[in-house]
Amino acid sequence: VVRSDDGGQSFTEVLALGNAVLDTQGTLGPDEVVGADLSANGQTAWVATWTGIYRSTDGGLTFARLGLPNGNGCARDVGGRLYGCGSPWVHGWALATSTDSGDSWQPLLTFQDIQGVAACPADSPARRVCEPYYPNLAALLNITPQTPDAGTGAPPPPRTGCGCTSGGAGPLTLALVLGLAGVCRRRRTC
Fold first, then answer.
1. How far is 190 from 182, CA to CA, in rounded Å?
2. Contacting residues for 163 by C-beta, under 8 A, at least 6 apart
3. Cis peptide before 88 (omega within 30 of 0)
4. C-alpha distances in Å from residue 185, one per residue of 114, 141, 180, 189
5. Which of 146, 137, 88 is closest to 118 using CA atoms?
6. Whole-prediction pTM value?
7. DSSP of 149-165, one letter per residue?
8. Any idea what the Cα angle at residue 179 is, between residues 90 and 36, rounded to 5°?
9. Are 49 and 71 in contact (CB under 8 A)?
């Protein structure tokens, strides 16, 4: 990661990433930047990589690795609240939020929270788009799909909203999970 203080005329390296990612053959490869964000005041910056999140509190002059997440890092600051992706196999959550710039995290989503596609009419866009992906996604993420009540055989109560849902979080969460699944499938190191 480089920084410029003269409008792009020159650059200084502020964060060098090492070899930290295993590929599908078990070979150690380079970590990569997958995203970055900057606080509204420009003093805090986050750089997300395959292995975690790095934070700068001095306007991007220096960076330090956050303790969590360990794997599948992503970072987005929204009004002073940081949202981050992580590895549910390592620390139990796939999406969390932080009110202290990443020092501590409050889980928002685990893969086990995903209950499947909302009960929508057969011709609805949500059902056509989401339903075909769900069985493979559930298998990939080791999700136990919601099943009918064992005692009554009754189906689970339908979820409202008629969209791709994950514990009520909506289409954004399914997009996140599908994105993480793509990363997991490509890297096999979630």
1. 10
2. 118, 120, 126, 130, 170, 171
3. no
4. 18, 10, 8, 8
5. 146
6. 0.66
7. -TTT-PPPPPPSSSSB-
8. 80
9. no
Give the separation between CA 34 and CA 72, rounded to whole angstroms: 9
Query: Looking at residue 22, what DSSP letter applies?
Result: E
pLDDT tens by residue, 22-78: 666 666 667 889 999 999 999 999 999 988 999 999 999 999 999 999 888 899 999
In this structure, what token pair is assigned to residue 90? 């390592």
Element (H or E) spanning 125, and its range? helix 125-130
pLDDT of the residue at 13: 93
Containing 88, the helix (H) or strand (E) segment is helix 88-91
Torsion sign, CA atoms 8, 9, 12, 16: positive
Give the long-range contacts of residues 33-36, CB within 8 A, separation 24 or more: 33/1, 34/73, 34/74, 35/73, 35/74, 35/75, 35/76, 36/1, 36/75
* CA–CA distance, 67 with 91 (Å, rounded to integer): 11
Query: Is residue 133 classed exposed, middle or buried when 0-12, 13-18 and 19+ CB atoms within 10 A define those classes?
Result: middle
